[in-house]
Amino acid sequence: MIALVVGEMSLRRRFTRCRLLLLSSLLLVLGALSTPVAAFFAAGSLEWPFPSRDSGQSSAEAIIVLSAWVIPPDEVRTEPELDASTLYRCLKAVELYRTLGPRTIVLSGGRLPEGIDYSLADAMRRFMLTQQIPDSNLLVEDRSTTTYENAVETRSLLQERNIRKIVLVTDAMHLPRAMACFRAQGIEVVPAGCRYRSAGFQWVPLAFVPSSTSAVVVAEAAHEWIGLLWYWIRGRI
Fold first, then answer.
1. Mean of the pLDDT values across residues 37-63?
2. How many Å apart are CA 193 and CA 53, to the nearest integer?
3. Which of 39, 55, 57, 140 could disulfide-link 217, Cβ–Cβ 3.0 to 4.6 Å?
4. If we measure between CA atoms, which residue out of 189, 163, 165 comes closest to residue 178?
């Protein structure tokens, strides 16, 4: 943001008044979209329809957990580590398993980068075992690479076990697209969101000050809305 302002000042002599006005307007828009207020409404537009608790969860026959990503091995890590989103989702599934009672947990996520010989779902399974979830209650779906494929590939596993109603665990902002994909496959879905970005918001002066964190949230929300539109155009939801 500061760099853009400095850039504008340095180019004042080269730009016409009309172009400067256009550039200034763009800076104002970008600044407004990078504020906590903008992030609150952007995230809320996706999250507000889905409370963190739903009365229908107790009657679901399985818990589906969608992967996000992992941090690959490097000079510090000897094994891939779950990224923040995947970790939160797995912890949410563990909470549901202990609250609702034992039931099947389906871990959905495809292959990792070249050089890693197991999938995102396998990485999630390894973590779930450290949380004392019995391996007999874990199913691995390791072929999907998109949200749409998560739904398609998981449906086959559910049909084999005659499971018709699930609790779907993913980031709250991802729920609208994910739920639409699963429902399009004829699966009854109950939401179980995590990582809510629109919770606990406070109307303080700093809420109107641009920040990189808020800009990331707005960008993620935009990604989800564009994804919903694209899936609708493609007939996937």
1. 91
2. 8
3. 39
4. 189
